[in-house]
């Protein structure tokens, strides 16, 4: 993989003043995080397809079932650790005058690797949110999750963006602002199909940023990139 990282790419990266990194499921897959979306959304939980049990409609119809699904997912994630890709990205935040990490992942592995001020486009599986007052609560890995809101007493739901829901307020706007002023944009482990996050690389490209993609396979974004590095994030990112 080292031969694919040109001198020009290394120089552009090392000399960048403002860097935006967008990550997707491919980064965490190397740590063992299931994507649940492989095979044409084939995963079924207790008779319900993945996109049904993970929907806003199910929160209204059967919140207990939604929690069962997310409790199951957290149990899978609790033993997993960040990989070399996560750690490389965490080191970069001290390297550049301006640095922003935007992730579509909800697993918290970037933070576990040491990344700070991460913009979580789709929320976090390690938080709960009140359905009424929207207060947020961390969910400890080794303790039972909170059962009700301490402020108003109403029910809590997973603090993630479900099918049929909007992104958290300000998440895309803040990310788009960073994309419009970055001079190096790195897109890692994402299919570049999920909007509006998929707009960010094109915003950066339109503003003159150098656009680099790291993914095991080509994506719809690949044709617009200045450089495409075909490989896994854990192998490629430390080489930068």
In terms of topology, how is this protein built?
Blueprint lengths: L6 H8 L3 E6 L1 H5 L8 H4 L2 E2 L2 E2 H4 L2 H6 L1 H15 L6 H9 L5 E6 L5 H4 L6 E2 L2 E8 L5 E3 L17 E5 L10 H11 L2 E5 L10 H8 L3 E6 L11 E4 L2 H4 L4
Parallel strand pairs: 1-4, 1-9, 4-5, 9-10, 10-11
Antiparallel strand pairs: 2-3, 6-7, 6-8
Give the biggest sheet. Answer: 6 strands, parallel
Q: Strands of the largest sheet, in order across it? A: 5-4-1-9-10-11
Q: Compute the gyration radius: what is it?
A: 18 Å
Amount of beta strand: 15-25%
Coarse morphology? elongated
As for the number of domains, it is: 2
CATH topology call of the largest domain: Rossmann fold
Encode the helix/strand succession as letters. Answer: HEHHEEHHHHEHEEEEHEHEEH
Poorly predicted tracts of residues: 38-42
Tally of strands: 11
Q: CATH homologous superfamily of the largest domain?
A: TPP-binding domain
Give the N-terminus to C-terminus distance in angstroms: 11 Å
Question: What's the CATH class of the largest domain, please?
Answer: Alpha Beta
Q: What is the annotated CATH architecture of the largest domain? A: 3-Layer(aba) Sandwich
Mean pLDDT: 91
Helix proportion range: 25-40%
Number of helices in the DSSP assignment: 11
The quaternary organization reads as single chain
Global structural class: alpha/beta
